[in-house]
Specification:
Blueprint (H helix, E strand, L loop, with lengths): L11 E8 L5 E10 L18 H8 L4 H13 L2 H6 L14
Antiparallel strand pairs: 1-2
């Protein structure tokens, strides 16, 4: 994840399993990197960027693909630099698959 980065950090990779609406396993994990593994127990959601490859799958498996597609497209139209700087209010949706 952080190979060859300037300012590389030491930390841990954590995998969150993505569960189907029925509660069964999907075989998909969302991997995150944290420098503070001691705080991971307080995690109550995982946020994916609208450009993340898993977003397309989640939209397709949603009960309302058209509605979610509209939301994802709106997120993608937001200024990326502003999103990264935290200047844009965080929004989201609960996909059909969840943890």
């Amino acid at each position: 994840m952080q190979r060859n980065w300037i300012g590389r950090s030491e930390g841990a990779r954590v995998k969150f399993p993505l569960l189907a609406p029925s509660g069964g396993e999907t075989g998909v994990d969302i991997e995150v990197f944290t420098t503070r593994i001691d705080t991971i127990y307080g995690a109550n959601f995982v946020l994916l960027a609208p450009e993340h490859e898993l977003v397309e799958r989640l939209v397709g498996e949603s009960p309302d693909p058209a509605g979610l597609r509209g939301q994802v497209d709106a997120f993608r139209r937001q200024d990326r630099a502003a999103r990264l700087a935290g200047d844009v209010e965080k929004e989201g949706f609960r996909p059909a698959a969840t943890h």
